[in-house]
Write a structure and sequence with these properties.
alpha+beta, Fumarylacetoacetate hydrolase, domain 2, six-stranded mixed β-sheet, five-stranded mixed β-sheet, 6 helices, 18 strands, globular
């Protein structure tokens, strides 16, 4: 059967030290999953349960460790902001997962950026509208190659440093251990509202000190033991 319009391009992420690829399905994001970021955005991390929003799979930009990735400053915004995040790649699906099943569902980990049109997000929030206009747009999710999970990697990732620099200046730094809701807890709660599928990505939240970038700025984002990605914002 012929398509009436050209098929949209699928996005694939490389697997470190492998010739296999990870086909990106859905991209789920966790809102305000670090206490200090929750506070700077006006929430109470002790009271608020995790909430979820989504980016489109087409928003993902494969960002290789060995090269600079270029993304364009997006249209319709004057407040383009960075958020560094640990990304979890799902290898097994399911619904209403237990903590043990959630751990088994993890295929691997990556470094990601949840780029945000903050002014458009703020306008949507003020009017009680969905966030997609501020979160789900072209090139808004640079993601590194995926490192496959093993017991040793999982143990060190739980305590790893996460950070981001802009033009060499430190902007964000924290540790994965500061997550309000752990990786497995996030997967469990997400699986209570969506049936997870192999190929899904979960962006697990960002630490405090998010901020804006301009065309010409260079972002370096990392998670300890996973590597770093280098992203340049173009006109």
């Amino acid at each position: 059967m012929k398509h009436i319009v050209p098929e949209q391009k699928r996005i694939f992420l490389p697997i470190v030290d492998s010739d296999q690829l990870f086909p990106v399905g859905r991209v789920y994001c966790v809102g305000r999953n670090y206490a200090e970021h929750s506070k700077e955005m006006g929430d109470d991390p002790e009271r608020d349960p995790p909430f979820f929003f989504a980016k489109d799979a087409s928003n993902v930009v494969p960002a290789l460790f060995s090269a600079t990735t270029h993304i364009a400053y997006p249209m319709a915004t004057s407040q383009f902001e960075y958020e560094v995040e640990l990304v979890v790649a799902i290898g097994k699906g399911g619904r209403h997962l237990t903590l043990e099943q959630a751990s088994e569902a993890i295929l691997g980990y990556a470094v990601g950026l949840d780029m945000t049109r903050r002014d458009l997000q703020a306008q949507a929030k003020k009017k009680g509208r969905p966030w997609e206009v501020g979160k789900s747009f072209d090139e808004s999710a640079p993601v590194s190659p995926i490192l496959l999970k093993n017991n040793q990697l999982s143990a060190v990732v739980l305590k790893a440093e996460i950070g981001l620099k802009v033009n060499g200046e430190m902007k964000q730094v924290s540790h994965i251990s500061n997550l309000t809701w752990s990786i497995e807890e996030v997967i469990c709660k997400l699986s209570d509202v969506f049936e997870l599928r192999p190929g899904d990505l979960i962006m697990t939240g960002t630490p405090e000190n998010v901020g804006a970038v301009q065309a010409g700025d260079e972002i370096v984002a990392w998670v300890e033991h996973l590597g770093e990605i280098r992203v340049c914002v173009t006109d």
